[in-house]
Amino acid sequence: MRLIQKVIILVLIVLFVGPQAYSNLIIDDEKELTSLADGFALAMSKKDKEWMETNLTGECMTYMPTGESINKQSTIQAFTGAVYDIKKSSVGNKSFGITEMEAIGSADYTVEGSVSGGDDISGTYKLSFKFKKTDAGWKISEIQINGQ
User: Fold this and answer.
1) pTM, rounded to two decimals
2) In the beta sheet, which residues pair with residue 92?
3) Residue 57 to residues 83, 117, 142, 145: CA-CA distances in angstroms?
C-alpha cells in the first residue's frame, strides 16, 4: 500500500510541476528569441558584423523582397553597409512559435535608410525568421524580408 501511495504522489507531482516547468522553458526561449529580433534591428543600424557573425547560423539564408537569396556572409555584408545603409531600426509586433530545437517568428521592422545607390528604403517591413537551438543558445537560421 505504501508503494502505491508513493507512486500516486510522484505522478501528481509530475502532473502539476511538469507543465509549469515546461511553461518556464518556453518563456525563457521567447525572451532569447525576442533578444535576437531586437539585436538584429540594432546590429543593422550599428553595422555590427560581430553580432551578426555570432547570432546567424553558418547556413543562414536571407530571402530578399526582390526574390534574391543570399548566404550568411552576403547577409552580413548587405546589412552592414555594402548594400543597405540603415540609420535607424526598431522592431515591433513580435510573435514566435517554438518547438524543442526550432522556432519561427515574425516582426515588423521600421527602418530609416537607403540602398548604396542613395534610393530611400525607409518604411516598415515584415521579417519572418527561423531559429535553431544550438549548444550556445538560439541562432537565426533564416530571414525572409517582405516588402512594405
Assistant:
1) 0.80
2) 108
3) 21, 29, 8, 17
Burial of 28: CB neighbours in 10 Å, binned 0-12, 13-18, 19+? exposed
Confidence of residue 28 (pLDDT cuts 50, 70, 90): confident
Architecture of domain 2-146: Roll (3.10)
Residues facing 131 on adjacent strands: 103, 140
Say how far residue 103 (Cα) sits from the centre of its chain: 8
Q: With contact defined as beta carbons under 8 Å apart, do 124 and 43 qualify?
A: no
Q: What ranges in 47-144 are assigned the alpha helix state H?
A: 49-55, 72-77
Q: Where are the domains of the chain?
A: 2-146
